[in-house]
Automatic annotation (TrEMBL):
Coiled coil: none annotated. This is Uncharacterized protein. One of its GO terms (biological process) is carbohydrate metabolic process. Keywords: Glycosidase, Hydrolase. GO terms for molecular function: hydrolase activity, hydrolyzing O-glycosyl compounds. It comes from the Eukaryota.
Amino acid sequence: MPNVGYNRRTKQYVMIYWSSRYGFKNSLVALAVSSTPFGPFVNVPPLEMQGGKVISDTTNLFVDDDNTAYVRYNTRDEPLKHVVEKLSQDWMITTGQFSVIFEKENFPWYDGGGMFKRKGIYYTMLSFDCCFCQWGSDARVFSSTEILGNWTYIGQLNYCADGSGPPEHVTDMTINPCSIDDPFGTNFTVPAQQFNVATLPISSEETLHMYYGERFRSSKDGLKAHDFQAWIPIRFIDTCIQPMLFLDNFTLNIDLELKT
């Protein structure tokens, strides 16, 4: 699950990624750099995060408009937390400044998700920890006007396919929240577990934010490496974010002359 950002100050591409050498063991996040977006990326000393003692399995790199970078990650030390933490100007170390987006002591825990910014408001999306489930996961949205400020839960984007909301608590990650007694019953509307949000400047006046997630157990031959993904445009009406629909297809009109 690599995330790559371009640091305009240092003129290098920086990748953070989850590594089994660190994940579930300590507070380190793997870091690599390259002079081009195509690599090769070379490992450098990992980031040592300050907002938790043990990092879990998902990390995201978010770069703000002023080139300041942040890492969003979840922790395994209780209570389990989602944290956003500010990096130094060269993105090579943490500043130690962080904010807790959400914390929870009982299952389901939350992982995955992504962070984006729209019209001065920061958003984070989190999902049930379903661990390779075919029914997918939800998409809980939190927002803040300051990235290191207080975060507020604003709503659910991925309801169960029958229109119901998933429960606040289930007993285990093997339980389908949309069909408690039948793991092969009702799925989520978008039957995927979210990994991130892609931000696409499609014109000089419009930016599209796109959910993407893994559709576990979706491959026809049963191989995990052949599973499909779900890419879904996130819709807004004014400032109100709208529940997602599982679209068979959609068209993006991108200004090819747009310079970023």
